[in-house]
Amino acid sequence: MEGFTHFNEQGRANMVDISEKCETSRTAVAFSRVKMNDSVWEAVREGKMKKGDVLSVAQVAGIMGGKKTSDIIPMCHPLMLSKLNIEFEMPETGIIDIYVTVKTKGSTGVEMEALTAASVTGLTIYDMCKAMDKGIELGPTYLLEKEGGKSGYFKR
Amino acid sequence: MEGFTHFNEQGRANMVDISEKCETSRTAVAFSRVKMNDSVWEAVREGKMKKGDVLSVAQVAGIMGGKKTSDIIPMCHPLMLSKLNIEFEMPETGIIDIYVTVKTKGSTGVEMEALTAASVTGLTIYDMCKAMDKGIELGPTYLLEKEGGKSGYFKR
Amino acid sequence: MEGFTHFNEQGRANMVDISEKCETSRTAVAFSRVKMNDSVWEAVREGKMKKGDVLSVAQVAGIMGGKKTSDIIPMCHPLMLSKLNIEFEMPETGIIDIYVTVKTKGSTGVEMEALTAASVTGLTIYDMCKAMDKGIELGPTYLLEKEGGKSGYFKR
Amino acid sequence: MEGFTHFNEQGRANMVDISEKCETSRTAVAFSRVKMNDSVWEAVREGKMKKGDVLSVAQVAGIMGGKKTSDIIPMCHPLMLSKLNIEFEMPETGIIDIYVTVKTKGSTGVEMEALTAASVTGLTIYDMCKAMDKGIELGPTYLLEKEGGKSGYFKR
Amino acid sequence: MEGFTHFNEQGRANMVDISEKCETSRTAVAFSRVKMNDSVWEAVREGKMKKGDVLSVAQVAGIMGGKKTSDIIPMCHPLMLSKLNIEFEMPETGIIDIYVTVKTKGSTGVEMEALTAASVTGLTIYDMCKAMDKGIELGPTYLLEKEGGKSGYFKR
Amino acid sequence: MEGFTHFNEQGRANMVDISEKCETSRTAVAFSRVKMNDSVWEAVREGKMKKGDVLSVAQVAGIMGGKKTSDIIPMCHPLMLSKLNIEFEMPETGIIDIYVTVKTKGSTGVEMEALTAASVTGLTIYDMCKAMDKGIELGPTYLLEKEGGKSGYFKR
């Protein structure tokens, strides 16, 4: 099963040994798009001007979700995140784009933390809006960029 | 802020009152697609024939993630899930489709549990394969079907 | 050790048997006060007019904290909360008052859920403001009112 | 794969459907034995007469661990426990016996909750004593008795 | 919104970047007071002489709560605590004082860990005694002292 | 109470101060045995050849359980695990042996992480098989070996 790093000699999943890897600064940026109907989108956008809006709840959820990554993704190492920031863009009617930047100084990357935070942010937007639109679509969700570590720089 | 059910009189988010809602049987089916390059996809498919494969780890993660929904999504009510099942399809090269069925007997629906389980399943596939392909795409993720509760039947 | 309900025959703590108690509607209202210096208080109040303000983060934290009660307080039974709402008042300069209402339909009361949510809300306000004022004071925190269950109605 | 109830039609694990099962009263009693050298055992026993002793920490841990069962054991349904009690016996030098009784009113049994609480209790005894004796042995751990549900009464 | 460190450029909350901050030894001491009626206070004090007393349960809860801080407080960084100690004083009838000392070697302070542990300790005292006195008051809770980090020494 | 390291000056449990301890590489290996009747054992062994087998679910559970150790065992310090691997042996009919290896680079050992992972692995095997055999026995569970730290090398 060459290529996969998560399997041990018995062919079963394990948490790979990172004890010999260097502690370096690592950054990852993930992206996720949420698509909804126009009237919900308008309601979310107006909410942004008010207290307690959809996006601010989603963002708190995303940050807390990013911190739970190693509890949610079985083979993820626990990590001390040093930064987790979430920004939103609403580039056109019906679209909310989520950008998550995560930093750590450690022996393994933070791609999963960024992707998990982005997914939880999107799921929370769905939850806050589902009474108005059950057809909301989450994704695509992907890694935009990563820096640091042996595998080096990646940019989509 | 008509239409949103998650805000209180101060315009802030709250966990809506479901104490007057009926306990009925509720089902939700969520879907999520994972897109990867062909060689990783082949490796995952072969893994299916062996112990400890990618999909079986992803599936355990998805089930455990679905049970964590009310801990991850801020305004979700805690719920006693009575069933959570995940099935995979690989309809064409490069595509893994995730179907999650969740059931409960309770006062609120299980859409978020199904969507969260589907997302965590996809994230885990990404994690298991990211050493081979950092460009894997998660989504679209959406609700396929729901049944039970006042808002009734929904099918995409 | 009469009077305490949390100890077993060996004199050790246990989770008391509620299997014979009735499922009734139960409500609890908790209060917590946060005292800070005037300039921080002004900054928080202005934040209320903007997105991402201190109180909306604190409120999401309080709701999520309330749901974690049985995971935080050793002898608390897990409970299906049917409502959790948090409201703020700023009755005078330097004071933020937190009111938490929790409802359930179950065999035990929700006092601890309301008090835990109120405490987490206050702690989060501290965290968001501590760069400006390390002397912020949390409390008093107490039960304002409870309804339902054998011990009946309580009002402070 | 007849006999196993935790696998779906694809041969993968799932959380079995309990939505058609009756809500009945269910009880389970689990047992776990801890074996340690005589001097540690004496120290633990003396500790029982003082505040903050080993067994009282272990017992709080066991109760909290029992409540986490569905978060720890992948295919366990979340359950509202109505009682969780832990008792200790020290039948002879070097032996601490742990008895855990769990009750619920629900659609599935509480064997796993009792066994998990017993295991966490034992692990905590190990942790509290390991500076003095790294050779402590945990187990055997088994189900002593269960009552309620379709599979009926079991006694070892 | 000068003064607040928890907001990003969009005015939303984030987990601030500590990747450039030094790893130094950091200590924080928090205080919390619990006020109860005299008869409950006597019962708690007597319990101190016995196994399984209120304060020892509260203390285990406080330690475990302190470790959960970054899971409870949205913008808190995960931290490797190197010490967490809780002491009680009962300076006069009706009063229990809680002192929590937390240490770490890291890039950010442990004030929130100390305050969270103190609050959870108090909440657990409430829970253990509420059958006898629903009017128990928690607080004031505040930071007594902190050391280490750029903002330096603070003493109330 | 000489010999115990988990008690403070008031005789109560605390999380001992490790801030002066060195960061060294630490390894621990734990063992746990599961005993079941022959027909279940055969079913588990055959399952190994298929997707979704009992042992692969148990193994994912064990890895995730190991990461939760400081959340489950009250006085355990949070730790950044750098490796967690689980292997199975089936040395004779009716016996499944679990071997867990954990590594970290830190100020305290990983014995508890290895023992907790081994226990959760065994508990999950029980859960997956309990429909066929309620009499399955878990244990003995013990530390096989540890390396690193002031107390040095231990081998059973």
From TrEMBL, chains A, B, C, D, E, F:
Subunit and partners: Homohexamer; trimer of dimers.
Lineage of the species this protein comes from: Bacteria, Bacillati, Bacillota, Bacilli, Bacillales
The organism of origin for this protein: Salinibacillus xinjiangensis
UniProt binding sites for substrate: M75, C76, H77, M112, E113
Transmembrane segments: none
Assigned protein family: Belongs to the MoaC family.
GO biological process: Mo-molybdopterin cofactor biosynthetic process
Keywords: Lyase, Molybdenum cofactor biosynthesis
Reactions it catalyzes: (8S)-3',8-cyclo-7,8-dihydroguanosine 5'-triphosphate = cyclic pyranopterin phosphate + diphosphate
NCBIfam families (alphabetical): moaC, PRK09364.1
GO MF: cyclic pyranopterin monophosphate synthase activity
Chain ranges of the Molybdopterin cofactor biosynthesis C (MoaC) domain: 15-149
Pfam families given in the database record: MoaC (PF01967)
Entries under HAMAP family matching the protein: MoaC_B (MF_01224_B)
Pathway named in the protein's UniProt entry: Cofactor biosynthesis; molybdopterin biosynthesis
Active site annotation, chain numbering: D127
Protein name: Cyclic pyranopterin monophosphate synthase
Alphabetical list of CDD domains matching this protein: MoaC_PE (cd01420)
